[in-house]
Amino acid sequence: MQKRTIEKHIRLNEKEAADWKRKCELTGLPLSTIIRMLMNGFEPKEKPDLRFYETMNQVTEFTSELRRFRLQAQHQNRVDIEQLKKMEESWQQLQLDLELKYLVPEPSFIWLKEKRDRYRRRRKPTASAE
Question: What's the whole-model pTM score?
Answer without folding.
Answer: 0.50
